[in-house]
Specification:
This protein is mainly β and 106 residues long. The chain contains two helices and ten strands, in the order βββαβββββαββ.
Length: 106
C-alpha cells in the first residue's frame, strides 16, 4: 500500500500478475495510479516510456492467438504512428485486489 495525499491505496506489482520473475526496484520503477469503480489502485511497473492518447479508431481487438493465462489481460492493440502498442485491460488486471470492504470486479 501507499499513502497518496492522505489516501491509502493498494498497490500491485504487475510482474506478479504476468508471472514474471522478481526484479529489484530502481530509479525507473514507477507506480501508476488508476481509478477503477471509483477506487484508486497503484500498479508497479518497471518503467514508463511515454504517456500518449490515441483515438478509438486506432484501437483494434487483440488477436486471439495468445494462449497464455496473461493474454486475458490484453484489451486490444493500438497504433500510434508506425508503432503498435499492446493495451492492457486494467479492470481485469486489478479485479482480484481487495479495496477496503469492496472487491473490485470486472
Amino acid at each position: 500500500v501507499i499513502n497518496l495525499r492522505g489516501q491509502v491505496i493498494p498497490v500491485m506489482d504487475v510482474r506478479t500478475r504476468f508471472h514474471m520473475p522478481y526484479r529489484e526496484y530502481n530509479e525507473r520503477t514507477c507506480v501508476i495510479v488508476v481509478s477503477i469503480n471509483e477506487h484508486f489502485v497503484g500498479l508497479v511497473v518497471d518503467a514508463v516510456k511515454e504517456v500518449t492518447s490515441m483515438p478509438e479508431s486506432s484501437i483494434s481487438e487483440a488477436p486471439r492467438v495468445a494462449r497464455s493465462e496473461s493474454a486475458r489481460y490484453i484489451k486490444g492493440i493500438g497504433k500510434v504512428g508506425d508503432e503498435v502498442k499492446i493495451l492492457l485491460d486494467v479492470q481485469k488486471l486489478v479485479s482480484e485486489i481487495d479495496v477496503g470492504q469492496t472487491q473490485l470486479s470486472a
